[in-house]
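Technical note accompanying the year-one report. For the benefit of new consortium partners, we illustrate the data format agreed upon in the data management plan: each record pairs a sequence with a structure-token string. No post-processing was applied to the example shown here.
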Amino acid sequence: MKTKIKIKKKEGTRTLILHSEKGQSINQVDLKKLHDQSLPGFIEPIIQSAMGKKLKLSYSITGTHSLEWILKHGVRKETFIDLIDQLNQVLKLVENQNLDIRSLLLDRKTVMISQNSGQLNLIYIPIQYYDCGCDVRRFYESLAYNTVFDSQEETVYVTDYLQTLNSSVTFAKFLMEEYVARHRQNRTDQDRLICPHCGNQVKEGEIFCSFCNADLRESVSNENRAVEVPISQKATPFITEAITTGATTVLTSSCQTTVLQENPASEKAWLEQIRGKIHIAITKFPFVIGKEKNQTDYTVLGNTNVSRKHIQLSIKDERIQIQDLNSTNHTYVNGKCIQPGCLVPLTDQDRILLGNEEFIFHEKGTEL
């Protein structure tokens, strides 16, 4: 059955609307599961009906991009693996909740991704005997053939993806799960996060530990503080560890962190990272910020919405300028999205968003 879909925009909101055929009725069991359990990965529908007429189902998609839009904007390996992982989790949830896979609307235009969290949001149509014509295998296959992959990365993982998908005559979810696990294992230990409370390994970007439910944001902030503090302090005895980052040696003891610098550079400006209230000294240009530790001057930890190399700060005409480095989730200055590659001058107290990671820009001389 071909589903008629319309996206309605009104006063900053977006709603996906579809209509049933006459005489069809709601599957109350499936609707109760969507409503009562707030299943992750699904958008709960609002249903309107009138006697003898078609059912109208509305799904709020405000604050999301379509999967098709995401796939056309330079996808990197980590993003692609995360998308496949999330799809696998949704299919697993469909099985566990005894939902009907035929009612799952698998289409690149109607699978939505949250702009803030990167969470997949799928449309499930709780109508009895409804058939969206869902072909899971074909959908997974379309992701490889309709994605613009980052040209700076090797795409061996894409070849492996297609080979894994085609290694079985029918779609096998466990093969896709093995594919994700295989490529997750290839990530370096530096990209893995360990819960400081229970030792459980958690995915980058998670806020709470899935095992002990501990808040991970405090530990991420402390990690940033330990390595990124730009202000020299007096040395203390009983040193237990030394970490070298460029010209900065961080010496840690049981009671204090010491930062020693060879020829300390003068601070030209600074950023305040709102999460953790972290002071980031800008002492050189260009100055790159992102989540890839080996390619940035400041590394944002614990946020998958930030790209590996997200922005670059440079100086031109005696003004500090910001440039988006073709990031996945974009860069915003005072709420306005800036175009990739364009230089935008900054002024004191400008608010900067890297995806959903917030900073405040401070010109030299201003204080916290």
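Partners are asked to follow this layout when depositing records. Residues 223-264 have pLDDT under 50 and may be disordered.
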